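can u pls check wat happens w/ 2P0
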Amino acid sequence: MTTAIRVRALANLALVKYFGKRDARLNLPAGPSLSLTLEPLETVSELSLDASLDADEVWLADAPASPSFTERVTKLLDIVRQAAGDGRRARLKTRNSFPTAAGLASSASGMAALALAACKAYGLELSSDELSALARRGSGSAARSVCGGIVAWYEGVEEDGRDSIARTLLEPGQWDLRVVVGLAASGPKEIGSTVAMERTRTTSPYYGAWLRAVHQDFEDALAAVGNKDFTALGEIAERSALSMHAAALAARPGIAFWNAATVSALHLCRSLRKSGVEAYFTCDAGPQPKFLVRPEHQPQACQALRELPGIEGVIECHLGKGALLLP
Ligand code: 2P0
């Protein structure tokens, strides 16, 4: 058995959402997206190769992982094994510092960590663009968690997806943005984002309008990041989230990720803004509301969200680094 490779990767929060694929096998997105890589939402993974194993062995938080998660891990490892010409099976022990599969992007940090660990373990030398494209094969949003700070994921035009990669626009130290995550419900979500986005693409009458909006929102968000214009970026983030959820709600059958606390949080966010606390609402494929705020407004936003009925806790986040090896 080889010595374990240890890596860490952070989850990310999309301000311009990824929701819809142009190629489901390669996880090629139908549009670009823009995200924040967030400390302290971390995955730490250990990977070792073991020639005596017949199949990959996957542990999630000290328990054997589900067959579906194990299968996703094997799928990504198979790509690396084929490229490296090394068929050895692996043992993966992975752990998230935050609720798994609850709309907090655990697959993004998990698959980014796995891609990096697998490259190191199998001796594959990849550029950061290539690593992003590899992580994307595990989970689309993982392409972004390879990179730190404020990140753009370009949809690309190539059929094989080699130009569908994410890159850092600003490093964590270059703009201090904060995110307050509200924990609106614990436990796994009712519908996974992969299934939800495919149903939305194939059945929602609003899907075309959503895609057109994404391209404009991405261009506007790039400009807002370039100018460090918080208000512009916040407004884009809120409208991108609401458009994504509108498209999903209109799918057949409709997909409602929100619960009562999520709706209350949207209204709370808007009343905070009226009172001078400039917070913007976003939400992903689960019920957890997230507020984008400036550092000086983080304490008030945090307190208000924590006191909201139905919110079980909050996580205060700031920009963090891309996937990295641990000693
Ligand atoms: C995002 N989401 O941009 C969007 C917003 C959920 C809502 O990326 O099928 O788990 O593995 O590519 O990456 C979640 O999608 O989906 C996601 P797959 P993934 O953050």
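The pocket of 2P0 is lined by residues 14, 17-19, 27, 33, 107-108, 139-141, 193-194, 284-285 (CB under 6 Å).
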